[in-house]
């Protein structure tokens, strides 16, 4: 019998602290490509959309595609 209070690591949300090194634009673009590949999305299209504006646009696009399982903190 499985214990309900123990969660599978894959079920945990991913958290990114934007004030640390993971908040770097290039790191976020790399994570977006990686997540897109795992989800079978068009990573090049997502990266193009992320880089079509400023840093806030990059975050908005990242959140649009991956916000259901990634939490961004400022």
Quick take:
With 74 residues, the protein is mostly helical. It contains three helices and two strands, in the order βαααβ. It has helices at residues 25-38, 43-50, 55-66, and strands at 14-17, 70-73.
Secondary structure elements and pairings:
Blueprint: E1 14-17, H1 25-38, H2 43-50, H3 55-66, E2 70-73
Parallel strand pairs: 1-2
Helix pairs in contact: 1-2, 1-3
Task: Give a quick set of tags describing it.
about 10% strand; about 70 residues; 3 helices; two-stranded parallel ribbon; mainly alpha
Order of helices and strands: EHHHE
- Total number of beta strands: 2
Shape: globular
Mean pLDDT across residues: 91
Percent strand: 5-15%
* Cα separation of the termini: 40 Å
**In which order are the strands of the major sheet placed?**
1-2
> Structural class per helix/strand content?
mainly alpha
Radius of gyration, whole Å: 14 Å
Major sheet: 2 strands, parallel
Helix count, DSSP H or I runs of 4 or more residues = 3
Low-confidence stretches: none
Percentage of helical residues? 40-55%
Describe the structure in your own words:
- There is one protein chain.
- With 74 residues, the chain is mainly α.
- The chain has 3 helices and 2 strands.
- The chain has helices spanning 25-38, 43-50, 55-66, and strands at residues 14-17, 70-73.
- Strands 1-2 form a two-stranded parallel ribbon.
- Helix 1 (25-38) packs parallel to helix 3.
- The longest helix is centred in the middle third of the chain and has 14 residues, at 25-38.
- The termini are far apart.
């Amino acid at each position: 019998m499985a214990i309900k209070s123990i969660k599978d690591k894959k079920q945990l949300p991913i958290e990114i602290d934007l004030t640390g090194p993971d908040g770097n634009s290039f790191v976020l673009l790399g994570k977006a490509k990686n997540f897109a590949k795992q989800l079978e999305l068009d990573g090049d299209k997502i990266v193009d959309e992320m880089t079509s504006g400023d840093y806030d646009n990059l975050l908005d696009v990242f959140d649009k595609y991956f916000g259901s399982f990634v939490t961004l903190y400022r």
